[in-house]
Amino acid sequence: MADSKSAPKILIAFYSRSGTVEGLARAVAEGAEAAGGEVRLRRARELVGHDVLSTVPGWKESAEAMNARYAAPTAEDAEWADAIIFGTPTRFGSVSSELKAYIDGLGGLWFQGKLNGKAGSVFAASSQPHGGSEITALSLYPVLAHLGLIIVPTGYADGAMFAGAGSPYGASVISGNPPAGPTEAELAVARFQGKRVTDVAKKLIVA
To answer: Where exactly are the structural domains of the chain?
Structure first.
């Protein structure tokens, strides 16, 4: 593993409500760390109150547990990073409002050009096979472009991509309802994504 001075810095900023996207985020982090990256895992915070979270059994407790495990993402995290990987559940075919609120808060860094040239990537989750994971990932590609990030897709650059999990746009989860969490095949794609983004970030640092 690269030493702390040369290790590419990877920010994984995600939102997860049931823990499904969290599982994918942790696998992305494992892949990044295995490739020599220094990782910050950050969970975006709720925009709805406990009254809404309490309408579904387990949501409130899951959110509180994850908030205890992960700090909220900050603009400083994004400035620190050499690569930023966003993770989100699909919300009607688009990014969750919680993660989008964090991204919208990066306007100051965008204005100063401090995100230009960093690697960027995305992963997503839905409860059904045609629930919108791919379009959700693609909905974030214009955001990455506006921020000045260099988009790093998963492509079909690893054998894990041929096991029927994930997409060429980013790792994904089909969780089912109730959610069953990522499968090993889905986790393998996420680990590959973390590794690939880290490898690209290394080259960008040298460049």
So the answer is: 9-206
Residue pair 198/10 in contact by the 8 Å Cβ criterion: yes
Those residues whose C-beta lies under 8 Å from the C-beta of residue 133, and which sit 6 or more positions away, are 90, 124, 125, 126, 167, 172, 173, 174
The chain-wide mean pLDDT, for the chain, equals 92
Mean pLDDT within 64-84: 96
pLDDT of residue 102: 98
Q: What angle do CA 147, 85, 69 make, to 5 degrees?
A: 125
Q: Tell me the two tokens of residue 35.
A: 């490739």
CATH 3.40.50.300, domain 9-206, yes or no: no
Packing angle between helix 20-34 and helix 184-206, nearest 10 degrees? 50
Under the banding of pLDDT at 50, 70 and 90, the label for residue 188 is very high
- Taken in order 189, 18, 124, 7, the sign of the CA dihedral is negative
Residues in the chain: 207
HEC profile of 68-123: HHCCCCCHHHHHHCCEEEEEEECECCECCHHHHHHHHCCHHHHHHCCCCCCEEEEE
The stretch 8-17 carries a mean pLDDT of 96
